[in-house]
Every structure is written in structure tokens, then in C-alpha cells.
Design brief:
Number of strands: 13
CATH class of the largest domain: Alpha Beta
Strand order of the largest sheet: 2-10-9-8-5-3-4
Helix content: 40-55%
Shape: globular
CATH topology of the largest domain: Aspartate Aminotransferase, domain 2
Strand content: 15-25%
Distance between the termini: 27 Å
Length: 361
Amino acid sequence: MQTYPIPLVPGPVSVPQAVREAYLTDYGSPDLEADFFELYAACAGQLQQILATQNDVTIHSGEGMLALWAALKSVLRPGDRVLAVANGLFGYGIGEMAAQLGAVVETVGFGYDDIPDPAQVRAAARRFQPKLITAVHCETPSGTLTPLAELGEICREVDALFYVDFVASGGGVPVLVDEWHIDLGLLGSQKVLSLLPTLSMVTVSPRAWEAVAAVGYVGYDALAPWQDGPARRYLPYTHNWQGMAALHTGCQLLLDEGLNAVYARHAAVAATCRRRLGEMGLSLFPNREAIASPTVTAARVPEGWTWPDFDAALRARGMAVGGNYGPLAGKVFRIGHMGNQAQGELIERGMEVLAEVLEER
């Protein structure tokens, strides 16, 4: 099995030693032990701090996509109207997911190298009157970061729930769940939190809980059991105690560093990455610093290379970056400098490898 000493994929990211050690402890049954429920509550409290919210935080066993499906299934019935705000693979994909559940979906679409225009979203929301408006904070495939404050205001204007995927941004940039009126906020463990891809989290507002109760969805990914299940010490399945211990450690690492320091570290590493890429003559995607995410940088595959050849040349030197999907497949690659990978020394090593590969072509 191949491993890479310069890990710069945009998730799952490298896992710090303290988090690795947290996975190695043997525990009892989370269904029966008071210690587990105390740990669950502590993790939820940490996530409330990181995400600036007083809303409930539910923590599930399953990779980040579990959160996306859980929130949709728990608040939508067939025929409900969903306005999908989309400027990348996941934004368009969430609209497709809602349609698969029988929702009537309208998409306000923008280019993969752009961010949503609130004026267009507002006009569509007023006309369409959706029950749910969806958006993606960080579109990892294209490296963009969407401002959310005005979108949240639009949701309140039309009395729609606001559903936001901040899987690839939460913890690495400010995410203000309450201030931005986010009713359903979605997070995964394998990005900035720097865990294995085994947990997903959802912030749930009182308005969202009302919708959950009205829909009454039941299933492994249902949100309903988590509203009072942890407090009653009655869970719908056997939880991942080792993962929860790692989550507590990962969250505490961020809180001990200080969130403002964490954000500054991500911004500094992103700036270094983009500066070095520019010096090498590589074209950023999008080529607009103002809309680029501090957690991931996307760049065009250099001229004269195919993506498979470029990827192989980097991996031969011990460096792994991310390829891409959909219309960006084979054209744009991604450097993940999030969480444990947002380290100046690591990104400098990666840039040196990139320079060597380009010079030897």
C-alpha cells in the first residue's frame, strides 16, 4: 500500500498524532455507559463554539455525505419546493439529491469559477417561494468560498429553511451559524477537524426541528432520534466511541490554538500556496483571490500535461494532491491545505516538488 510523505489531498486529510492516539483506546458500550453520553455532550459543546451557534448539534456515525442526506430526508416531503443555489459540483448535486427525494427543485446556477449573486437568488426565492434553500460554503472541486450572510437573510425574507454544506470550511474559516440564519449546517470529520472519515454533524435550529417533527422521517440517517436521544441516553444505533474521543481531541486542538489563530494559519498557508503557484506560471481556478477558499486551492493542470501523467509525476516524488470531477475532471487539480495540512512547512515542501516536476518536463 502506497503512502505519501507530502499529503495535500483536500480530504480525508492527514490525522495528527494526538487524534490518532485517541482512536486507540478501548471503551465499553456507548449504549450503556454514562461516560459516552458525557463525551457526546462535550463534543456537541465544542462544535457549538467552533460554529458560533446555540443550535443543537447532532453527531452521527458515517462519512460527511450522511449529514447531507440526513438533513434533506428529515425535512422534505415529495412535492416540497427546494431552491438550490449552485456554483459548483456539490451545489448542483444537492439539488439533484433533493429531486431524487421527490422535491420540486429549481436551481439558481452560476459558473464553477464564480460565487452566487444574492440579487438573482432573492428574485428566484421571492418568485418560487421554496420551503428550503440550499448552498455550499466551500466548493472543494473549484476552491471557492461563498458568502452566506445575505443568503441567510433571503431565507428569512421568504420563510425558507437555510441548508448549508460547510463540510470543507467549518473550523478553517469563520462559520457563523446563528448570525447567518443557518437552520441545517452540515459538517464532516475528515476535513478541517482532521479525523478519519467516520463522523458527520448537523447543526439543527428550532425551526428545523419543527420541520423534522412535521415530516416524521425514520431511517438510519434520520435526525429525529437525536433531538432528545442523547439526553435520554437512548440512541438509534451503536455509536462510534473511538471516533467521538478523536472528535473531542480534534476540536480541543482547534480551541486551544484559538479560532482566530486557526483562521489566520489557514489564510497564510493559502496565500503562500497561491503565490508559489503563480510564480511557477500555473493558472489558478478561479483566478480571483477574493472568492478563493482558505482551505483548498484549485489550479489548472499545466499545459503539456495530462492529469494522469501530472499526478503520477507528483506521486513519484511523494506528493499527493487531488484530481477533480464533472466538467473540471482532467482540467483542474486541487491542493488541500486544511486542518492538519494547513502547515507552512508542508506547503513549502509541496511547492518545491511541484517546481521540480515542472522544471524537469
